[in-house]
Amino acid sequence: MAVAKEITVGQVLPPLEKQVTQRQIDAYSGVRPRSIHTDEAWARQRGFRTTLAQGMMSTAYISELMTRLLGEGFIKGGKMAVTFIKPVYAGDRLRVCGVVRELVPENGATRVVVEVWCENQNGDKTTVGTASGLAY
Q: Checking CA distances to 71, which of 29, 48, 63, 111 falls within 20 to 30 Å?
């Protein structure tokens, strides 16, 4: 579990690098016809260059980032509010980032509030928001 006194406002979290493959998207979404996630022809008909990852895959990556920081304090007391601002495509490489923005006392612990985002290989942000959890 993270120790609150070891976490500081402005602290940059070590980023995660995630390669998004069609196989991962298929496993996450379940392969089915006429889906922008698993049917490339259907995705192209809908105006996308290829299939898209589920937005929840990005939230899972952010959860991994936060669990690395706070362990059980995120699993038991985690919160997240994110917005998906650009699609994540099969073949993209995501960088999952975070910066500690606030430390708030909460019932004998400290809520660690982190600005989080995912960006693709071009540096374009695809998901933005905040995540928080407890440190003791």
A: 29
